[in-house]
Amino acid sequence: MIIIGAGVVIVGLTGLGVQAVRGNNTVSSQRHAAIMHDAAVDNAFYRCLDVQTRSLVSPGEPVWLVAGSFGDLVTLIKGVGNWVTIADRLSSAQATVELRDNVAGGQTCLGTVVVAKDTTPHHGGDRVRIGSGASVPGVGPPPAPPL
Amino acid sequence: MAVLSASGLAPTLALLGRRWVVLPLMPLTGSVLAALAATGYLATGGTFLGWFVVLAVAGTAIAVVFWVRRPDHRPWRRPLLSWAPGQLWLSVVGALGAVAVLGACAWCLRGLATPTVGFDARALWLMRGGWFLQSHHQLLVKMRIPDIPLVQSVYPPLVSATTSLAWRVTGDQSQRLAVVVIALLNSCAVITASWALVEAGRSAALRLASGDGGRRPALVSRGAASGPALPTGAAVVPMVVGVVSAVLLVFVAFGITEPFATNGYADPIWSLAAVGAVAYGLQAEASRANLGVTVILILVVGMSKDEGLATGSLLIVLVALRGVVTMAAGERRRRWWHPVLIGVAELVAIGAWPLVVRIVHARGLTSNYSPARLWASRARASYDGMTPYLHVLALAIPVAVVGGLVLSRVRRRSGLANDWWAWTTLTGGLVAVIWAFATGTVAIKPWLEGTVHRVTEFPALAGWWIVATWAVVAGCSLAPGAAEPMRARRGTVGSEPADVVDGPVPLAEPLSSAVGE
Predict the structure, then answer these.
(1) CA B389, B395, B397: angle at the middle one, nearest 5?
(2) Residues A76 and A93 in one domain
(3) Is A12 found in the same domain as A53?
(4) Which of A33, A142, B383, B494 pairs as cysteine with B203 (C-beta 3.0–4.6 A)?
């Protein structure tokens, strides 16, 4: 029994040790330059959307998020969903907010801008405003983070 | 983290007594309070912070009342340091293990140097944290409105609620802060689960050293008459193996859960807490302190994610079952309802959020099922997709078989329960995931590609836990006399001194039922 016990100790600790080394390598790989770059671009992109949206609507102002595409709606929610006030229906929104992609020029977030359209006469009717205050050069979308 | 720890301090101390493991458990208890606060806020309104403060004060008040009524459980009743030789030995091994596990965890957190925010973290887990800081009306709008394509917003709230608390307390509503706080919580769960191995090694060594009724003085050096015996020679092997395997398990855990351990996902927290619940609730010897750890970890599991809710429910049933079957026959007749009552209370706590989201008619509650004729092929695809992440089973199964055939007597003497409890939980978790994949309507291939590495975290971690546990047990076999039959003997050797107060299961007393080993 002692021999078998010693064998189980050796096999168990060896297995754990090998997997621990692999685990350590996995953690180290998170600091790879490409991953750090992608993370920085991803953060800059969503911060850019956040700043542009804040230049258009205030946190307490009810808005309606418009889906140019499903992907754009998800991107917009990821960028501003934690603070923006969403109207319970379109008619009670003071503005619609959406993303516009493939926009040329310098003041974009990887080629995307936030667009607000005022929905009530009090706010100017169909006035269209473009977000400002931040930009990320390049063309999007940002590198996909791990799912 | 300080607020989480402060809110969780008194309830954790009341449940566990003064122990090392209280330190990583305090913030986890605080996160449970935050999750309950989010549930209360969604159900009735008020403010999230108001709910949290009320619950934290209530938890502390209940702990104080408990200490007033049960003075023997006051954590300050025993001296801060005990210099009895046996207890000093325990403390030295504990300190070494704590430093080693803590150091390993700190090293593994270097992944935080990369400021990654995961896709789902940004789209759900952390974003929803902002919802709890908005008005109740806005929270309901965001939970209900069908135009927001987030059916997962009905998932349990622990990660989001903890994020809310961090944002509210600091005033810094950044994703980075949330990711760091969740990563630290994950680390607390890792430390707690790994610590169980250190404890198992310490307990097993002292049991082996003392459990022979004093017939083998060569094995032990007796300390103070009232303190635990001091293992020497080969009897210290389980302690060493326990510390080494605990440190290795930290690296294994981070390897399995990265990058999600440091990018804001909810999968690591429930998976790691579930492994800890298996360790303390289904493998370690029965004691009030271990049950307290188990309760806290199960609440973390069930309040973190739907998969955690399913696994947590299974854990509750198994822990209650073990509690009943390990009672002596007479006690079982009188007190069978104790573990059942604890289980029911846990089910109520983790079931509160799913109930509330139904009451408020949140979106994402309807379930669609794929045609039954596709279930077999989808289950097969799920099996194929999960296999690459479960190679640990190729090691864990033969180790468990050999251990079960050859080392069962040693395992019983070491105070560890039969590993079929862990295997049942592991299997139950796998079956739940495969069932979800098989009966779901999402295209199976992309679904697997996007999730399978996360939903296999718990079974993979549990597999490694089983390997590590058998290594500790096998370490016991190297001690002379380890395989001798147990003698019924009463004592309290084999755990932290606070167990003297808790009244652990009498040492080496044969258990009343094989299933409850």
Answers:
(1) 100
(2) yes
(3) no
(4) B494
Which residues, numbered 49 to 108 in chain A, qualify as contacts with chain B under a Cβ-Cβ cut-off of 8 Å? 64-65, 67, 70, 73-74, 77-78, 81-83, 85-88
Residue of A nearest to B475 (CA): A9
Calculate the alpha carbon distances from B373 to B160, B435, B439, B447, B448 in Å: 38, 14, 10, 19, 19
Question: Same domain for A94 and A141?
Answer: yes
Report chain B residues whose CB lies below 8 A from the CB of A81.
123, 127, 130, 142, 148
Cβ distance B450 to A147 less than 8 Å, yes or no, reads yes
Given CA atoms A129, A135, A136, A138 in this order, what sign does their dihedral have?
A: positive
Calculate how close chain B gets to A137, using CA atoms only, in Å: 20
The CA-to-CA distance between both ends of chain A, in Å, stands at: 47
Q: Are residues A44 and A66 in the same domain?
A: yes
- Looking at the fold, whether A8 and A41 belong to one and the same domain comes out as no
Strand order in the sheet with A85-86: A85-86, A62-65, A95-100, A113-118, A128-130
Is B455 contained in some domain?
A: no
Q: Same structural domain for residues A1 and A63?
A: no
Please tell me which of the candidates B115, B127, B251 has its beta carbon nearest to residue A81. B127
Q: Hey, are the CB atoms on A19 and B149 less than 8 Å from each other?
A: no
Is the ipTM beyond the 0.85 threshold? yes
Domain count, chain B: 1
Across the interface, do B119 and A147 touch by the CB < 8 Å criterion?
yes
Alpha-carbon distances, residue B229 vs B136, B235, B491 (angstroms): 59, 11, 11
Nearest to A20 among B130, B248, B262 (CB): B248
A70 with A129, same domain: the answer is: yes
pLDDT the model gives residue A142: 80
Q: Which chain B residues touch A86 with a CB distance below 8 Å?
A: 138, 141-142, 145, 148
What is the radius of gyration, based on Cα positions, of chain B? 23
How many independent structural domains does chain A possess?
A: 2
Q: A9: domain range?
A: 1-31
Structural domain range at position B344: 2-74+89-221+229-371+487-516
Band (pLDDT 50/70/90 cuts) for residue B79 is low
pLDDT tens digits, B394-419 = 999 999 999 889 888 888 888 888 88
